[in-house]
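Example record used in the benchmark description.
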Amino acid sequence: MKPCPLILLLALILGATGIAQPQQPGDWRKLVEQLAEEGMNETAIENMYEELLQLENNPINLNTATREQLENFPLLSMEEADAIFRFLEKNRPVYTLFELRNVALLDIRTVEMILPFFYVGETEGKAARPQVSDVLKNGRHELQSRFDKTLTQRAGYGEFPDSILERYPNRKYRGEDFYTSLRYSFRYRNKVQMGITAEKDAGEPFFKPDHPKGYDHYGFHLIINDIGWLKTVAAGDYRLSFGQGLVLNNDFMISKSWSTGNIARRTLQPKRHFSTAEDGYFRGIAAVAEFGNFAVTGFYSNKKIDANLSDDGHITSFKVDGLHRTPLEIEKKRNTREQVTGGNINFRKDRLQIGISGVYYQYDRMYNPTLRDYNFYSLRDFSNFNASIDYSYQLPGLIFAGETSFARNGAVATLNTLQYRFSGNLSFSLLHRHYPISYNAFYAQAFSEGSDVQNERGLYIGTEFRPFPKFSVTAYADFVRFPWLKYNIDTPSNAVDLYLLGTYTFSRQSFLEGRYKYKQKEKNTAWPDEKSRSVLPYATHKFRLRYSRDLRSGWNFRTTADMARYKEKHFPAENGFMLSQNIGYRGKGALTGDAYLAWFNADTYEARLYSYERNLLNSFYMPSFYGKGCRLAFSAKYAITDNLSFSVKFGHTRYFNRDTIGSGTELIDGKRRSDLFSYLRWVF
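Model output (structure tokens):
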């Protein structure tokens, strides 16, 4: 037997021992970890984590909380936010946070999770406008520095003769083999936010003669709230979301499986973009003004973006990874100017909300993707326009919400949801969407199975219920039709997405959960003995069993078994298995940390397995594994003082059945890969 499974078996035995003690409430970080495992992309997770961390450091006073503040809180559904607001309206002033337990829709776990984001203060009148001297004196500064390095040599950092580089210039990265970022932020209560971001990806040049600006990417944001009739003013980098996202949404999207009662979205005020992601945000100015029951939002963005260009200078696609390591990637850096402008008028009176949105965008080059059958209806122009009307109406236990939008070519898209709560133990959600083949909306991000809000019709049915006091079930079924061709699919196709999660809570300190995910789609498949290909269905089954327990003195053990099965029609099944153990320590001392160990055996890439492992502050790591091997990771955080901390992580992957890892410039000639991450945070 290999050494990794033996060590893992020992860890599993240790994980099953110990004396349970109450954990500290409000561990919202575990929820974010779960969302990362359920498929939210890295940028969305980082944005969400950053926002929650900011809110935790600047809690909301329950006695002055507004409906908008509650609705903008990411962890609350529309129904939960409305229930809390109506409870506070009737019971203010409240005297302890635990009075939230009297809100009928909130269970104990939800209350404990959101407690760190609120406090009980005085019932204040209209706050006086802060003076500049107060802002500078009482503001909170934070400085974060990150440095990552892959310790194993990769092909792109090798030495090549000049003759080879002259012929193949993109074989070698032009920069150093480390990642680094520097971020500074300033905040004064909920009135002022300001920040600066600088980042260099591994392989990008850093303060070289031909790159004197140092970091590859810089960002800045400034947000000021409550300036008379101006509710919010944002300058620099920011994110926006209107309605259900059919016209505009570059905020994060929650995965289907997080909460079937949280699928309806709402228009949000501008948020800062403080992530190091180089795509998915606006750069310019935005403002929100309030006039009675009306809120008016306007914005303008003007920035240079990366694009892949044809020989005649047309945009064939947008480059969104933010990597500028080789001459070819550097050539695409900010080669296109993007301008976006738009606005939203939102009317709200009691339970009714209606919004009108419009977005116009243009480029200094023509967008003209290479013509293929599947993209026949894609936009081919310098500009486009989208507009919509969104609506919602709430009754006790019932929410109806939706949005209907159109593009400049006349295509009409619509999304509508119905959420109904029969009782505190049973809720039901229904969502229907119709996105035409010719609907083009580049800044839309709405509920969908595909990556674009286009060429999709779907019906989603979800439920949450508690058949027994300690047992909860979340389930959904999503039935999708793609009326036109898609990439790698030469005919109209269908998809079915099923999800079932059952959780049994032994106590507030331990739980057992089982998860099953099933997805059936179609794709082009080449027959081994024929030159032709067919569109055939394929199905992916994923099973997970997890046990988690919190022990005395801050120890936590999480044991997980994963299995994946991939099957194409007429072809043999491909299987994958993973067994992992996470041991964490969150005691009262200055040192905290995690150890993660996993053993995996997956036949192919299609049967790959994902497993979340805790990374450094504000960053998330969701590696995928296939082949045979093991993964080991250690992370630790040391609080040097109350305001200064240093974190470090080491990760190592060993394969048993391959001699190389990766491909191209990322190729590692060997069976092992080791990475080192470090993070310094100073609050003053």
